[in-house]
Amino acid sequence: MSIDNLKGAVPEFAKDLKLNLGSLARSTELSEQQLWGTFLAAAAATRNATVLREVAEEAGDNLSAEAYQAALAAASIMGMNNVAYRAKGFLGTDYTQVRVGLRMNVIGNPGVDKADFELWSLAVSTINGCEHCVGAHDDVVRKAGLTKEQVWEAVKVAATLQGVAQAITVAETLATASA
């Protein structure tokens, strides 16, 4: 199982992350599609090849082809949107009414349940640190009927995968430096 491979790659100094990863993979707060879409979108957002490769393999076993592509689309479109909306915030009130002007058609037609896509977008936006996007996606998923516990479960997946990616990068860097 690929989550098991990923847990095996987590260095001992990050044991808590390994434990969190195991428990989150067995989450009952989210549907299977919500859970594995969140895992895949968040893994892509970490920008860590090991994390993405291992999560993608298991996500492929748990998601339809449409959901798999939509999760990757959420990571990609939020990669763009999070930069643009953070910049609008940084630039201040003079930019409030400026139209973003970037294509983002996939948000309107993601090919999966809209609430699931929005949840994945929220997880990616959490990793990318875009307060505006996190709030906007939270509003959409909560209005669609997801609970705060479900939203928080997606945030925990994102947080844990980001921590796992960091720990693996640190371990790889230190191993290369001492070789």
UniProtKB/TrEMBL annotation:
List of catalytic residues? 130 (proton donor), 133 (cysteine sulfenic acid (-soh) intermediate)
Pfam families attached to this UniProt entry: CMD
Q: What is this protein called?
A: Alkyl hydroperoxide reductase AhpD
Q: Where is the Carboxymuconolactone decarboxylase-like domain?
A: 95-171
Task: Cite the record's note on assembly.
Answer: Homotrimer.
**Lineage of source species:** Bacteria, Bacillati, Actinomycetota, Actinomycetes, Mycobacteriales
Classification via HAMAP family? AhpD (MF_01676)
Oxidoreductase in keyword set? yes
Family under the similarity heading: Belongs to the AhpD family.
Q: What is its EC number?
A: 1.11.1.28
What is the protein's known function?
Antioxidant protein with alkyl hydroperoxidase activity. Required for the reduction of the AhpC active site cysteine residues and for the regeneration of the AhpC enzyme activity.
What keywords are assigned to this protein?
Antioxidant, Disulfide bond, Oxidoreductase, Peroxidase, Redox-active center
Q: Does the keyword Disulfide bond apply?
A: yes
Q: Which InterPro entries match?
A: AhpD (IPR004674), AhpD-like (IPR029032), AhpD_core (IPR004675), CMD-like (IPR003779)
At the top level, the lineage of the source is Bacteria
Catalytic activity of the protein: N(6)-[(R)-dihydrolipoyl]-L-lysyl-[lipoyl-carrier protein] + a hydroperoxide = N(6)-[(R)-lipoyl]-L-lysyl-[lipoyl-carrier protein] + an alcohol + H2O
Q: Which cysteines are joined by disulfide bonds?
A: 130-133
